[in-house]
Structure formats: structure tokens, C-alpha cells
Amino acid sequence: MSTRSKAPKSSASKRDPATSNGATPSNGRPGSKTSAKVPPARINQYGIPDWRLEQPEFEVVEVTSGPEVHYEIRGDLNTPVPPIRDSKYLSQERCVELYRWMVMNRRMEVALENLYKQSQVVGGVYFGLGQEACSCASAYALGPDDWFAPMIRNQGAQLVRGFHARDIMMQYMAKSGSPTHGKDGTSHYGDIEKRHMVSPISMLGDLLPVMAGVSLGARLQGKELACLTWIGDGGQSTGVSYEGINFAAVRKLGLVLIVESNLWAYSTPTEYQVAVKDLANRAIGYGMPGVIIDGTDACQVYDATYEAVERAHRGEGPTLIEAKLMRMKGHAIHDAAAYVPKEMHEFWRKRDPIDRLEKYLLEKKWLTPQQNQKMVAEVEKELEAERDFAVNSPMPEPHTAAEGVYCDGCHTVKPKYGMPQKARRSEGKLKESEAAIHFK
Length: 440
Description:
Blueprint: E1 42-43, E2 49-50, E3 58-65, E4 68-75, H1 92-117, H2 132-140, E5 147-149, H3 155-160, H4 165-173, H5 207-220, E6 227-232, H6 239-251, E7 255-261, E8 264-265, E9 268-269, H7 282-286, E10 290-294, H8 298-313, E11 319-324, H9 342-349, H10 353-363, H11 369-392, H12 434-439
Parallel strand pairs: 5-6, 6-7, 7-11, 10-11
Antiparallel strand pairs: 1-2, 3-4, 8-9
Helix pairs in contact: 1-2, 1-10, 1-11, 2-8, 4-11, 5-6
């Protein structure tokens, strides 16, 4: 099993899923359907497929007691944890490798939290605790030429697509060796040359039209690519989100949008932000496919993303995937999330995506307890070396503060895949309308 995915190769002209992450499974093409018996998806009241094996029945309500307002959760919170849904596409080897990426994601963020408490971090830190399956499995389903634009909680996606843990650590520590060379202390960096990563944008929702534009730009150069990005349940309510999704739907662009329906928009519960129960229902209004999945089930995340990526490669347009899960920490490290009912945390803690996938692999005997212990130890050893590298890296020299801020002939902007193809024009002279004559 490889310890690091290779960066996507821009020279590949056609997607081969067997090389999506630089690892070729022993049983051949991972995109081919396996013999797993997958139960049929349920259909919600508006006709949207729901792949989940459970539909939790509870809600958050606002309670006023004297001058104070707090939230309580009502409903059945004692339901058993459902099993993992067998993947139609993941082989044994790739499923184990995906599990490793998720463990790496979790342990790296634990290391980041410790660095923050040691005053090694400049600014804040954002965590994706409980969302590792959503970040890692979706990025793992991309082809080598596909693009992605992570949000603050999708650091696992960066690991899968070729970034090192040291890159992310140094970025938060504002070290000179970080992707922004110490000019930014959070997640605002990308790599459009090798890893096909568009930098996160703090204004939530703005990445959607940007990724639609990336897909359109690739199409004009003769390529149909999948462009993956994520948005929270709060961020998808912004106006620019609607504009970006609508444009992608109208032009049938390869936008793959995962709505991380993590139940809290900062301190506002979903019930007090939107009236719809399933955010995937909004796909109907855009005229595009939508699907609901369990965001803590890595197999569901991978399969839904894989099928959306294949649609994009065929030029069939965007897909909206609603991943139901919960943000298990506050908005950032400064937010203790005291507003979240404790019972809600406990319910989702039992559905920890890493614990669920570990149990799944052990029960299928795809991983033995000894192999699991060895793998976790290897991850810890690798992260220790990455942490030491980041801690011992120098801070940027003062004179570099003004370097690389503005582009003044530093590089040439040119098409990535070839010269844009000319749009076809209708033959014959256009007739002047009465309105045009009037305005003359």
C-alpha cells in the first residue's frame, strides 16, 4: 500500500480510475462494479434518491427560559448505528488505503490542535472532526486531471491529492516553507499547476461559480473535467451559491458539489436557517440530479462522487450531493460550541466515520487487528516526522514580505490544455430587430 498519493498528472488525456491517486489496485479498474449487493436507494417525497441506511428522526428547537435562550434536541436518539453500505466501485486495497487517508486526516488535525495549544500556530485552526469520510472519499474518487477546491474543513482532501501534512502545518504556522511562504496563516493557497487545486475563498459560496468557470474553461479547450468543491449548509444559502449552481446547470458544466449538511451554520441550527428538510431537494429547482448520502459512510461518499465525476466526464452536467453528518467541533478552535446539545454530540459520536470504516474492514477481514495497529503506528511515525519538520522550519525573512504579492511579469498566463476552440456562428447576416432600429 502506498504511503502517499502522487499529484495528478496534467499530461493524462483520458481518465483511468485505476490511476486516480497513483495507486493501481491488484484487481484492476476500481471503477468496475463489484459483486457487492447494494440495497436499492430510498426515494424522498420529492423524488430525490436517499442512499442512507438510516433516517434520523430528531430536531433542534429553540427554548427560552427567562432572559436566556438555548437549544434542545427532541426525537429518538437511541437508534442503533447502521452498517456501512457496500461500495459498488471500491476494491479491497483501495478501501483500506482510503481508511488510511482518513486516519492521517484525523491524526494530523490532532497534531495541529496541540501545536495551537503550544502557541506554535499564527491565528486560528479549523477542524473537520467527523467529516473525514466526506473530505477524503470524495477527493479519492477524482480522476488525475480533475480539479478540486477545498473549504476550511477539507484538509483531508488536500492530503489525498498530494499535499504533505507538513505543508498544512507550516501554513498554519506561517513558516517560510509553507505554500504561501508565510504570507497567510490559514487555508488560502492552491496549486493550479500540478495538483489542480483552486484556493479556498473566505466569502462562502464564491468557489461555486469559480469551479463552474474552471469546467467551462476546460471545455473550451476540448476537455470535459469534473470540478469538485464543498459547501456547508449555511454557505449554500448565499446568493452567489445559487448563481454558480444555476450557471453550471444551464451550461451542463462538470461541477460536483457536495453540500456538507453538518447541522450548524456557526451557531445557527439548520432548522432555523432553511425550511426544507433535505437540501438536495434544491437540485430540482436547478434542473440537475441530486442525491442524499450518509456523510459518515465513506463508501457512500465515494460511490456518489464517483458517479458524479463520471457524469461530468461525459459532459452531462453538474451533480448536487447532500452529505448528512455533523460538525463535531465548533466553527474554529476559538469556538467551544457550547450551544450544541450534548445529546446531539453523543448521537453522532457513535457514528464516527473512522470507527465505522475500521469496523467494516475488520468484519470483512480486509484488515486484521495486527495490520490495523501497524498502519496506525506508521501514520503516527510519519506525522511525527512531518510535525518536527514544520516546527524546525524557519519563519520568513522580513524582506520577503513584499515579494510575490503582485504579479509583474512573473509568469505567462496561457491555456492549460490547448488553444480554445472557436464557437460556431450561424451563417448569414443577422436581421435587425425593430428595437435595434428604434434605438438607432
